[in-house]
Target: Response regulator
Amino acid sequence: MYKVLIIDDEEPLREAIRILGNWQDLEVDEIWEATDGKAGLAMLEQHKPDIVMVDMKMPELNGVEFLQIVEQKYPELLTIVISGYNDFEFTRQAIHARVVDYLLKPVNRKDLNQALRKAIDVLQAKRQIQSESITRNIAFNMSLPKLKEKIYLSIIERSFKKQSNQAFLPLIGADQQDHRFGVLVLRIMNMEAVKDSRFNRDKELLYFAVANVINDVAVDSLQCFSFANPKQEREMIAVYTAWGGYPQEIAFRAGELMRRVVSTLSDLFGVLVAGGIGRYCEDVLDLSVSYEEAVSGIQGIDLLKLKGHAVIGEADKPAMKETFSFSSRMPILRGALEAGNLNHAKSVMAEFAKSIKVSGSFSIGAADRLLREIVVLMNDTASELGVPADKLPSSGGDRSLQVLGLRTDVATFDQFEALLLELAEYYHEQVRRSMAVGRPFSVEDIKEYIDNHYFEDIKISMFTEKYFLSREYLMKLFKQQYGCGIHEYVQKIRMDKAKELLDDSMLKIQEISEMLGYKDKNYFSKAFRNYYDLSPSEYRQQQEERVKK
Model:
């Protein structure tokens, strides 16, 4: 078990840390509080905690002074700094003091518990490793990469202010005039499959392995710092740093690095990557542009041409002219969902996928946009049909769909089509459950459906799934009400309709066959003869003779 000391002059923040911490999971059984650095030193001496969380701005003795004393008197103590992001002087001092992590105000649950988990991991490592130098390096090496990741992300997201964060630049080598920077972006196309088969379903372990490969294959003249994008599932960002060389030479080396990374990931783990390369920039703040170019390269890759192999996109390739939209098909799909007809719903999706194939080109970016559009449209329809919000995905992104149990790997167009069919199945199930709960069952509903859809392929399983009733019970209810079975009633409606259509001499028998749902004219003729003891042609001739008389 472990002990934690919280030092902060703001009581609400101390209380928030107590509430948000997963103390039991972290094996923390004792927590103390101090209102300033001076009181914190006294409690440190008295209780000897394993981890200290310290605010940088406090009365009496502030965080900087506290860390200076701790570094001298308690060099093995693990500390977590809490402060504002722009306090670069405090951050520099925190790094000097070898803190485990740096938390930004206001503290949130995820960042807090991640920082605490790092500290606990270091403590556990210390119990296994006796060398003091190794244990100190563990703490330092775990804090510095995380800070570098935050710096790069803020630059890519255009929230980094160079003037107020000048002290951060040496950490990423941006203070060197001959350094050039660029971004490689890797999208793991088969992440779910590889995670399950090679990494015991541990996504973070997969990300860690990919980052190690990227960093290891880099050459001396082109080094990488890579990390998973926390805001984009299955995306790895690799910031490359080059020094010296002409623009064409740097671009060549970046391309060569990407090819080595893609090949190594495939050979070692079977990871399939769609990669994008951003051009280098002399100002580190232009990394945002390089990142966007790399992403654009990935989004421009033609999904129809992918056959389960890694591929590197071209950022300067002209964008494909694509106008795919599902909105015109939504009324048809809604009708299928409302009727509980899964086969019809899936056929709508399959036909749409077929139209995309016929177009000849379909980029990864278009697939992403189309998936988001379909989820929005289907969410709206499902909500109108009574499906509760907690049963609907929040977006068309990977994380949202994975929560529903859907497989989101799209390394080929066939996998994209399979995902569309899975979506149809999922929404069909949710609408079916909602409608079954929302209204009482009546056997008249089945009759009404048959009367209006006699030309479709009607199966009893459609009704058993829709109303949560057994096949035997449904058939018994229907026969009691209408004197015949469901299949017999479908046949009766079709044959009655066949007579009406045959009375119209302008209609060909082949056309009538198709209008009744028979794909084969001969099959229709056989069914008609079995029902009326004469063929459709004989019936029509008989009717014509009656008219003449």
Notes: Residues 413-438 form the longest helix (26 residues).
